[in-house]
Amino acid sequence: MPDQTQQQFQYIGANIPIAQAALKATGQMMYTADMKLPHMLHAKVLFSTRPHARILSIDTSRAEALPGVHAVISHKNTPNRYFNSCGEVLDEYMTEQLFSPVVRYVGDKVAAVAADTEKIAEAALRLIDVTYEDLPANYDPERALDASATVIHDHGHLENGNLILTVAQSSGDVDAAMQQADRVFTGVYECPAIHHGAMETHASLAIFDAEGMLTVYTPSQDTFAVRRNLSRIFELPMSKVRVSVPAIGGAFGGKIDMITEPIAAALAMQSGRPVRLVYNRTEDICSTRNRHAMRLYLKTGVMNDGTIVAEDMRAFVNAGAYASGTTSVVWAMCGRLFKVHRCENVRFVGYPVITNTTIGGPMRGFGSPQLFFAQQRQMNTIAQALDIDMLELQRKNLTNEQGADPRNQVPHGNARPVDCLNRAAELIDYESARKEQQESTNQRYRIGVGVGVGAHGNGMYGVKADITGLMLKMNCDGTCVLFTPSNEMGNSSVTLQKQMVAETLGMPLSDIDCVEADTRLTPYQLGDYSSRGTFVSGHGALKIATTMQGYLAEVAGRMLDVPADSLRFSNRAAHAQDERSVSLEEIVQFSRDHDQKELMCAESFASQAAVMSYGAHIAKVRVDTETGEVSMLAYAAIHDVGKMINPLSVTGQIEGALQMGLGNALSEEMGIDERTGAVKNRTLKRYRMLYAGDMPKELYVEALDSFEPAGPFGAKSIGECSVVPTLSAVGNAVSNALGLEMNSLPLTKEKVLAAIQKTKEEKQTI
Amino acid sequence: MDRISLMLNGVQTEIEADKNWTLLTVLREVCNLTGTKCGCSTGDCGACKVILDGEAKNSCLIKIGSLEGRRLETIEGLFQNGKLHPIQQAFIESGAIQCGFCTPGMIISAKALLDRVPNPTDDEICAALSNNLCRCTGYVKIIEAVHMAARLLAE
User: Fold this and answer.
1) Would you say residue B80 lies in a domain?
2) Residue B7 sits in which domain range?
3) What is the pLDDT of residues A657-715, one digit of tens each?
4) DSSP string, A16-34
5) DSSP per residue over A416-474, as a string?
6) Domain of A564: which CATH number?
7) What residues of chain A lie within 8 A of the CB of B98, using their CB?
8) Residue A1's pLDDT is what?
9) Structural domain of residue A271, as residue ranges?
């Protein structure tokens, strides 16, 4: 194994473009919707227009009779096995079926058609006659908890009514500490449902062949869980189910759940032909998964010097119509509340609640952006009330390198949020920005500066068996093939695995071929989620490369007559201390010809640490008090990711997270029309994601020069953590610009204007 | 079925399709040119950009029937004789590519810009990309890539 603490490496720490970039740049990358097979049919799904209704009858005979239609499926002719679409909680809260006789949100699956063309399939949908009996609908998690609220599921072992599970954790004595606090602050914070917005919509292509083998090509982050779910639904052994990922055109957690896969599979089984199902954007917004809408009640007890002595949060989380991974998201966010402050008295109670809206599911940050929006907004309020600068208040309370979880004393790892904060303040020139803020009071254009700090994890150690299996085999010219269960979905996770192999075996990245994410071809892993890419799977790649290095060294040692452990690997060769060397090609040939042995290995890596990643963001905005428009003037995002394995991808992850987080803060919102239950913003014209011109003109993105001893080469995660502080930084900046408490996202110009108007009216009444 | 004759990636081409089909559908399903992507079908994401008579356009909003006699470039046209176009090279090296789904549309928009303005400013680049969405990169490295491409093209 290479010395991981040294400073100079050839591939570790280098700026490496993402694997297969040339395919993506030329349009040659084959995404699921680009695949075509002989005799392939096209599928369309009939979605519910009712928020909650019992299907009294469904007549598909006219659709079946339409020329070109080859299969029509509904709850009447498909397996009715209950499941949970989210692999993280595969065995719990099984509320979903392939098709149910009850629809539970506008956008729920009612039936599906496979036909010669998509147009014929669409026409067939219009020939399906459904009669519904409407049931009362609930869109708000708090109202859905009322004793009088209609219970949406009678299956899945939910805790009580529409409440899936009470997630409750605490440390210390919150009530006593709250009593002793000099000041107690309370607030209510609201975050909307958000569309993942991956540019590639959900899609699958399924084949059911004469051997009884079901193959599904799909852009999935969780191939092995999808296989398990398909195997359950269709009662097939796993040897007869293959889930393969051709490519992923963006996922962000939205492609963890199994969504289109069983529909395409059932149509393929019914028709005996390959079936491709591609959701359009409206279907992707309304009928897949979303970031959870939440209402958070937070109470903080503080001493007059700014020391936080108690934090007490209650979170009402809109799970939408099916359980999916909502409990997992609430558990994850719960844990984060115990990871950032030195405060010993902390309580979190979360209520994931079923309602009749689109399904909430995993999304980048797993509840942390919302949690920290509440916490950091309240910190900002406290700073103002106590007349302490926000940076001072943060420094007084943030955890540090010695920090540990107050529930169980598990260390956070090398936690450096204060260093992130200090660097962000320096880069954005916080003092000058604050001055600009003060000077702009009473002007039409107000300047606001906002600080947000957040944390995220590194895998699922302590929650699940957090393992990644990998295989590696040498080719006889000294190049190799890595079999990885990950897919390079855009975050450079496979690129990083290749860097680990390249550094350890001393070969260029171009010498490493990869077989990716395919249940038939690669070993198992937990999934491409939970910020496991670097810390767990990357570590797995280092482990398997180290094993292979041992094999190569053993052979090379005999060839050169030196001890195996004295060899160094670089430039496609093993080098002895006396300058003699043998090439990787010669080693592999010697092994084959002389030892009669193929050089190959398989390893599984299990994570054994629950360290945290941290980041601090500072936003500087300009608010036009006449139009309500918020412009992003400057932004600093500084993260502690341990050692950067690939700075190009680390900064790319942070920059991309800003597009998502700033959109979440300022303009993105699915919305619900309470008269019909339908999603309001159903197209990208109405669902406003940020374009290039909307991004901050002045941008500072950096990672600390740091080292996490538990990570591979000292590295830890960035993908999810990067989005976590965004909502609070922007929320605080806009609130500070206006001198108002802006606690409900997104901060659209309408909402900003309304808040300004309300204050004016209140002043007039006084 | 209608017959439409046009110049596609420098080659005079005759296409048989219903004239009311969108150019995007025809490219992907009739011509098997799947480099042009569909992200929305409403003209809001730019994943389906093509260059039509020198201008970047959303192919999801154009009927194939209107293309008679016109000059069309798709992402496939940029990769000639096994050689990456300098814009493609720049996108790769700058780290402007993550999931890659918006990339063909971005490169097409960048090409239409650079064909017109060889050395664009940040504002000109943002304006040229004002109808292209990317969910991965935050556009920072895409803008850098366009600058790098301008330098490579000038060499």
Assistant:
1) no
2) 2-75
3) 999 999 999 999 999 999 999 999 999 999 999 999 999 999 999 999 999 999 999 99
4) -PPTTHHHHHHT----GGG
5) -HHHHHHHHHHHHTHHHHHHHHHHTTTSSEEEEEEEEEEEE-SS-TTTS--EEEEEEEE
6) 3.30.365.10
7) 18, 250, 490-492, 652, 656
8) 66
9) 36-134+200-286
Number of domains in chain B: 2
* Separation of alpha carbons A325 and A319, rounded Å: 9
Cβ-Cβ contacts under 8 Å, B135 against chain A: 196-199, 250, 252, 656, 659-660, 689
Give dist(CA B44, CA B47) in Å, integer.
9
Quick one: A619 and A720 in the same domain? yes
| CATH for B129 | 1.10.150.120
Which residues on chain B are in Cβ contact (under 8 Å) with A199?
37, 39, 45, 47, 99, 101-102, 133-135
Q: How near does any CA of chain A get to the CA of B88, in Å?
A: 6
Average pLDDT, chain A: 97
- The CA distance from A318 to A60, in Å, is 34
> ipTM > 0.95?
yes
Contacts of A518 (CB under 8 A, 6+ apart): A223, A242, A243, A244, A245
Q: Which of B51, B75, B99 is the last residue of a domain?
A: B75
Distance of CA A640 to the CA centre of its chain: 19
Which candidate in A20, A26, A286, A491 is best for mutational testing of the B interface (most B CBs within 10 A)? Answer: A26
- Whole-model pTM: value is 0.97
* B31 backbone dihedrals φ, ψ, rounded to 5°: -85, -10
Count of A–B CB contacts within 8 Å?
A: 178
Residue A637 lies in a domain: yes
Residues of A within 8 A of B35 (CB-CB) are 26-28
Query: Residue A548 corresponds to which amino acid?
Result: M
